[in-house]
Amino acid sequence: MRIVFFGTPDFAVPTLDRLLAGPHRVVGVVTQPDRRRGRGRRTSPCPVAGVAQREGLPLLQPERAIEAEDALRELAPDLGVVVAFGQFLTKRIRELPRLGYLVNGHASLLPKLRGAAPIARAILDGERATGVSVMRVEREMDAGPVALQRELPIGDEEDAGALAARVAALTAEAVAEVVDAIAGGGVTWHAQDDAGATFAPKIEREDARIDWNDPAAAIARRVRAMAPSPGAATALDGEALRILAARTAPGDTGAAPGTVGRGPDGALRVATGDGWLLPLRLQRAGGKAMDTEAYLRGRPIPDGAVFE
Q1: Residues acting as catalytic residues
Q2: Cα 88 from chain centroid?
Q3: Which is it for strands 35-37 and 42-44: parallel, antiparallel or unpaired?
Q4: How many CB atoms neighbour CB 75 within 10 A?
Q5: What architecture is domain 2-196?
Q6: Is the Cβ–Cβ distance between 279 and 268 less than 8 Å?
Q7: pTM for this prediction
Q8: Which helix (DSSP H) or strand (DSSP E) does residue 132 occupy?
Q9: What is residue 166's three-state secondary structure?
Q10: Topology of 205-298 in CATH?
Q11: 172 three-class SS
């Protein structure tokens, strides 16, 4: 089959690479326009665009996907594949391929966690497993019928970055399996149970902010869900600070939530609403991420200090 691929971030790259290695022909790639990125704010292509350029594929980068309609028709695709594209796809685009639809690899076990941030939300919600669903793209976000699901356990200490890498690899294999089934005429679609739907909206600044009144276990989940970016946010003496890794320790803190106290082994720990949080990796605004021990050598945090 002739396939057009829609995708943008690193998460989508394994699927594009897998399709390029398979029996079907990727005839074009649609992705976001080049944006300013990194500390230097230089304009650069997104990861998917980089793959398209490397492979010499026709590359479309519209501000809105509908603007690429004529160019897409010239590519004459049989099927469209979407992974983390980041734009709404109108009916004209959804039905443009010869088969009349697009398929999407979504990083959750639908109907749970429809939306933009299913991996971070799964960790925040304390889920023990997540996975991937390959579905047909319809107007309602992530609500189309599903052809295939694959489950993946979430590690006890796994952060969003590590989990995303594993889910991305699983998505690549699941999408390739469904594309092969479509080509062979053996795909079966199953409607989602909308009554069981939950949602995973985009991560906002407030989602990253630590509330020290929460139990230590909940704060540790927030740290993992926000790592490596944007990082769980707090502040000390008015200076913003991100916690990128942490573990918990039980016990009566005997201190107000947010108060620093050294453990029996001298480790930095912070009182919470229930138990202690032990930060393992810290980053101040504009600085490098560092193990806590190294961070404290340059910027000591005294007992009794209070995180905001």
Answers
A1: 104, 106, 133, 142
A2: 18
A3: antiparallel
A4: 18
A5: 3-Layer(aba) Sandwich (3.40)
A6: yes
A7: 0.94
A8: strand 129-136
A9: helix
A10: Methionyl-tRNA Fmet Formyltransferase; Chain A, domain 2 (3.10.25)
A11: helix
